[in-house]
């Protein structure tokens, strides 16, 4: 039973946020998640291939009095993924929550996507998830079990206006990976779920549209397409992940939780 004055929602949990930096100033999904976990009592290992970005998030957490450490490595390398888990164990004594945020996209359909683009997208969106999950599961299983949250995308389930075949397909497979892990580990105490963001206003998206002559209009159009008439934020995504990672979601596994302001309903498919 919860009580007034209760501790944080992930109090004392040992957490690795994979891709906990940000490509630019402001609040990306991974950075917001790392800071929110720490505000809710977690000890956070910020894992990123960009050391400067990882340290920036760690500094923010420590500046608020939270506990965090960084690990720099490319998670497409299985040895680096194993080393990231080993770092969490060495820094915090174990690992309770794995949050997988990294993901990239390249625009193009089946007819015009070079195989190199397809492979690069799959290696980051899916292969790296396989490596870090495999490395993390033995730790997550200890101490009565743990939780995994993968960040996917609405595009894994529904078509947008432009084709992103590698992104759509790799993220759909990531969602399926989550369910496979959920099934295999349900009786072993590890839960696995995904957060499915729709249109989110992050530094990555801002940098992408900033190069267009009509950047402001694109941002307005993105917001206008959402039933709630705004883009989501990194905090919207982080709050959903926090819930799924926390003991409050202790009987929830194998779900895909949309954070899309109603976008999937508008697109005629709220069944995901
Ligand atoms: N912004 C949106 O509209 C939107 C919508 C749907 C889903 N998403 C998902 O959100 C996630 C990204 O969110 P963000 O705002 O934190 O992005 P971001 O690009 O700002 O941050 C991701 C971090 O991951 C790191 N990274 C990338 N590849 C790595 C690798 N191989 N090894 C280690 N670190 C690596 C980057 O250095 C970066 O700091 C992606 O999975 C993306 O598919 C975003």
Report on the structure:
- With 272 residues, the chain is of the alpha/beta class.
- The protein has 9 helices and 7 strands.
- The chain has a 7-stranded parallel β-sheet with strand order 3-2-1-4-5-6-7, sandwiched between helices.
- Helix 1 packs parallel to helix 2 and helix 3 runs parallel beside helix 4.
- The mean pLDDT is 95.
- The structure holds nicotinamide-adenine-dinucleotide.
- Nicotinamide-adenine-dinucleotide (NAD) binds next to helix 1, helix 4 and helix 6.
Features:
272 residues; alpha/beta; Rossmann fold
**Any ligands, ions or cofactors bound here, and which?**
nicotinamide-adenine-dinucleotide
Global outline: globular
Cα Rg = 18 Å
Largest sheet: 7 strands, parallel
Tell me the strand order in the biggest sheet: 3-2-1-4-5-6-7
Count helical runs. 9
Assembly form of the protein: single chain
Structure summary, number of beta strands: 7
Order of helices and strands: EHEHEHEHEHEHHHEH
Walk me through the topology.
Blueprint (H helix, E strand, L loop, with lengths): L13 E5 L10 H11 L3 E6 L2 H13 L3 E6 L5 H15 L4 E4 L14 H27 L5 E5 L13 H21 L5 E7 L5 H8 L4 H10 L9 H12 L10 E4 L3 H4 L6
Parallel strand pairs: 1-2, 1-4, 2-3, 4-5, 5-6, 6-7
Helix pairs in contact: 1-2, 1-8, 3-4, 4-5
Bound molecules: nicotinamide-adenine-dinucleotide (NAD).
């Amino acid at each position: 039973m919860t009580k007034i004055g209760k501790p944080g929602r992930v109090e004392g949990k040992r957490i690795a946020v994979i891709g906990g930096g940000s490509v630019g100033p402001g609040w990306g999904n991974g950075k917001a998640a790392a800071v929110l976990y720490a505000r809710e009592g977690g000890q956070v290992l910020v894992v990123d291939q960009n050391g400067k970005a990882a340290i920036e998030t760690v500094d923010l957490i420590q500046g608020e009095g939270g506990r965090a450490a960084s690990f720099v490595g490319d998670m497409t390398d299985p040895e680096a993924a194993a080393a990231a888990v080993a770092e969490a164990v060495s820094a915090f004594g174990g690992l309770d929550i794995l949050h997988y945020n990294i993901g990239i996209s390249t625009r193009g359909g089946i007819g015009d996507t070079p195989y190199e683009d397809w492979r690069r997208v799959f290696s980051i969106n899916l292969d790296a998830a396989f490596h870090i999950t495999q490395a993390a599961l033995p730790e997550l299983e200890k101490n009565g079990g743990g939780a995994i949250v993968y960040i996917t995308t609405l595009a894994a389930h529904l078509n947008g206006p432009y084709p992103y075949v590698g992104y759509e397909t790799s993220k759909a497979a990531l969602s399926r990976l989550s369910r496979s892990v959920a099934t295999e580990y349900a009786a072993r105490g590890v839960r696995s779920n995904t957060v499915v963001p729709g249109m989110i206003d992050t530094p990555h998206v801002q940098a992408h549209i900033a190069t267009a002559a009509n950047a402001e209009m694109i941002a307005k159009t993105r917001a206008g397409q959402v039933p709630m008439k705004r883009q989501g934020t990194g905090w919207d995504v982080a709050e959903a992940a926090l819930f799924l990672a926390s003991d409050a979601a202790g009987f929830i596994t194998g779900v895909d939780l949309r954070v899309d302001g109603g976008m999937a309903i508008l697109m005629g498919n709220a069944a995901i």
